[in-house]
Specification:
By secondary structure, the protein is mainly α. It has 10 helices and no strands. The two termini are 29 Å apart.
Length: 280
């Protein structure tokens, strides 16, 4: 399923009047093409974000704040690695996404559990912050497309947006689960249907590809979290009782297999880059 297809605006004349900055452009895009592989790994990463955050909080004995600081440091290190690459590298990119999923979950959990911030408030605040990121990103670059993440500025906006989509998805998902009390698998079905609806309005009704992509990106977070909770939580609480360790390891193994496959085949690299993309 591909929502994000092109950064070419509907009004070329307007685009010509306000061209995007071209300084410091790289030769290759720094993020993968939006393919079925992209969405599958993204949902798997969101599931790991939910179960790994719970597992680390339970096993490390550092408390929610300590785990949050540790994972934030690891994320910062991986993002430095990602920014230093000159093109899309599946291993580095998806490691950053997995860690940002964990950190986004922990940010929301800290606000709710440690600071007592209501989920309605955190959801609203994250939505506003994400909207501000998008506005500033568009005013500077004249596009929110992920097909041209080829400069330091665009990549910075991209990862900032990704972080707040995870935080927003966590808070909004918890809010829906708390208010509606649907249970894990029903919640997962609800969010899957919401993503499908976005696909329908995009493909059938021509809804903007860029906004379709970002809305679906936010919705995959509570979808993955619902799946993770259903697999890991005790049967008495409506789950399958696999536990956070087994669930996290299982999903990480699948992610690793897919990332290795994509590293070899380059099936998530744009056709224009596939021949010239450097191997190192």
């Amino acid at each position: 399923m591909t929502y994000e297809t092109s950064e070419t605006p509907q009004n070329p004349a307007a685009h010509a009047a306000a061209p995007a900055p071209v300084r410091h452009r790289m030769r290759w895009n720094k993020v993968p093409e939006v393919t079925l592989y992209f969405w599958v790994i993204k949902v798997l990463c969101t599931t790991v974000g939910e179960t790994a955050a719970d597992m680390l909080n339970e096993k490390l004995g550092l408390g929610l704040t300590g785990v949050s600081l540790l994972m934030s440091v690891l994320l910062a290190a991986v993002l430095v690695w990602q920014f230093r690459t000159t093109a899309y590298r599946p291993g580095v990119y998806w490691l950053a996404v997995a860690l940002i999923s964990v950190v986004g979950t922990l940010i929301s959990d800290n606000l709710t559990d440690n600071m007592g911030v209501p989920l309605t408030t955190s959801t609203t605040v994250f939505a506003i912050v994400l909207a501000v990121v998008f506005v500033v990103w568009y005013r500077r670059e004249r596009t929110l497309s992920i097909h041209s993440i080829d400069s330091l500025g665009r990549e910075s906006f991209y990862w900032l947006a990704v972080l707040f989509t995870f935080a927003l998805g966590t808070a909004a998902g918890d809010l829906v689960a708390e208010r509606m009390a649907l249970g894990y698998w029903v919640s997962a079905l609800l969010f899957a249907l919401a993503i499908a609806a976005v696909g329908v309005v995009h493909f059938a009704l021509g809804f903007d590809a860029v906004w379709s992509f970002w809305i679906a990106y936010v919705l995959t977070r509570p979808l993955g979290a619902s799946v993770g909770d259903y697999l890991s939580q005790p049967t008495a609480d409506g789950g399958l009782g696999l536990g956070t360790v087994v669930t996290s390891v299982l999903f990480l193994a699948v992610i690793l297999g897919l990332v290795v496959f994509l590293s070899v085949t380059r099936k998530d690299v744009a056709e224009r880059d596939r021949v010239t993309l450097p191997a190192g």
